[in-house]
Design goal:
alpha+beta, 7-stranded antiparallel β-sheet, elongated
Length: 206
């Protein structure tokens, strides 16, 4: 486990619209690149066979690779729903700078992104529990730019967003231990609950 150092002063304020635009461009750029590669993998064997340039059973491997990449790309479309949640949270809660971010050494890998376990300290909200963080667009790199702090929006009893200074990458946050999350939500007053509903962090009450 490594402790982040305290920042002497918060970095320049984050432009929420720019964070949203960058997340959208990163996701769409990744999807377009994958679709182009799939199209090339499908087209190359057809062109080579029809022109008589190369006719071999090995051309079938192109189709196999294209199918696997297409399946993996299908999962990437799930991230488009994350953009809506990102927008809702950033439009509902202000960003507050937290000067200390501590990350556990162990990370959890999944097809939707690598999950990091963090302790985020400082700020007006006081001490925070251990939280799980996953990149909004599924990137797996740990953003080392958080070593001098990061921007946080949301109510961690329900969830939130961490924005990395400099790169402005966005990560979803939720309390790591579900029992603590449940207790924190039960203690929330109606105003906090209504705000979390507005941000899409919890379902609407009937």
């Amino acid at each position: 486990m490594t402790d982040a150092s305290r920042a002497t002063a918060p970095p320049a304020p984050v432009d929420v619209d720019r964070v949203l635009r960058r997340a959208t461009r990163r996701l769409l750029g990744d999807l377009v690149l994958r679709l182009v590669i799939i199209a090339v993998l499908v087209a190359v064997p057809i062109v080579l066979t029809r022109t008589g340039t190369w006719d071999s059973p090995f051309l079938g491997l192109f189709a196999v690779v294209a199918v696997f990449l297409a399946l993996f790309t299908f999962y990437r479309f799930v991230f488009t729903t994350r953009l809506g949640k990102l927008r809702a949270v950033l439009r509902t809660y202000p960003l507050e700078f937290r000067p200390r971010v501590t990350k556990k050494d162990a990370d959890d890998w999944s097809k939707y992104g690598t999950t990091f376990t963090l302790k985020i300290s400082g700020g007006t909200q006081g001490p925070a529990p251990w939280v799980r963080a996953v990149n909004v667009v599924g990137r797996r790199r740990w953003p080392k730019e958080t070593e001098n702090g990061a921007w946080v929006a949301g109510d961690l009893a329900f969830g939130g967003i961490l924005v990395v200074p400099g790169t402005e990458e966005a990560l979803f946050l939720e309390i790591a231990k579900q029992d603590k999350a449940a207790r924190a939500r039960e203690e929330a007053d109606p105003e906090r609950l209504a705000r979390a509903e507005q941000a899409g962090l919890v379902g609407k009450r009937r």
